[in-house]
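Marked as duplicate of an earlier ticket. Keeping the data here for the record.
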Amino acid sequence: MTQSTIEQAKVVSREEWLAARKELLEKEKQLTRQSDALAAERRNLPWVKVEKEYVFDTQKGKKKLADLFEGRSQLIVYHFMFGPEWEEWVAKLGRTRDELKSIPMPPEQRKRLLHQYASLDPKPQ
C-alpha cells in the first residue's frame, strides 16, 4: 500500500467491517465456483489423436513421442522457448522442476507422471 492509500482507507466499526467482509467473501466464493466450472470444462474438452510420428533427440538417443512416457500414463512436456545465446536456462529448468515437484498429489499418481523438457537448443540435457 502506498501512503496515500493508507490515508484514504475508511475506518469503520467491527460490525461494518464484518458485513463488508462477508459480502466480499460471497463474491470470492462465487469466483471460485466459476473457476472450478471453467476448469471442469477444460478437462472435458475433446482430445485430438496424434497421428504424426514425432521423434525426439534425448540423452538416451532418439525416441518417439509414445516412448517418452516410459510406461507411465501421464506426461508433462515443458517446451523451452529461448535462443542459443540465453544462459539462464539452467536456473529456469531448476525452478520449473521444483514447481512441478511441489504440486501436491498422492504418491501412486506421482509414479504415473513423468516430466520431460524439450528445446530446440541442445543445452538442457
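See parent ticket for discussion. The mean pLDDT is 79.
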